[in-house]
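ERR on first pass: missing label on line 2. Operator R.T. fixed the label and resubmitted. Corrected input:
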Amino acid sequence: MQLLERLFDNCALYRHPVIADDRGSLVALEGERNLPFAIARVYYLFGGAAGADRGFHAHRQLQQWAVCVSGACTIVVDDGRERREVRMDSADKGLLIGNMLWREMRDFTPGAVLMVLASAPYDEADYIRDYDTFLAEARK
Ligand code: TYD
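pass 2 clean. output:
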């Protein structure tokens, strides 16, 4: 993994190693080998309605690795003090999003697919969906 940009201590944009030949390109992501956590869950967002934004939550414990495997989208990350954003526009880029970071996803291109690798199974109790609650917990 090549570090492209550090947004916060626990949030950074990386370039994946790409195995390319004349047939095309391949990226392999392996839990605890080239990712900093074991992968417990994979989900992906696709078929987004034009102009629809997603996210608007933080996770108390969950770590995630986001890859826009097709098309592009913008991910906004907020640590409760500062807001940073990154354009995910290539399948060779991965964004590590650690815990206690508010995220918003927007400006999906038509047909974009955002894949997320996560460190734990889905658990609604891990979500903070209210921004003021997030700020109060993040600033503790
Ligand atoms: P939500 O987290 O609101 O999506 P986003 O943050 O991308 O806008 O999830 C939408 C719905 O899907 C919500 O009812 C919870 C459900 N869901 C699962 O059942 N499993 C999952 O792994 C995820 C991410 C969501």
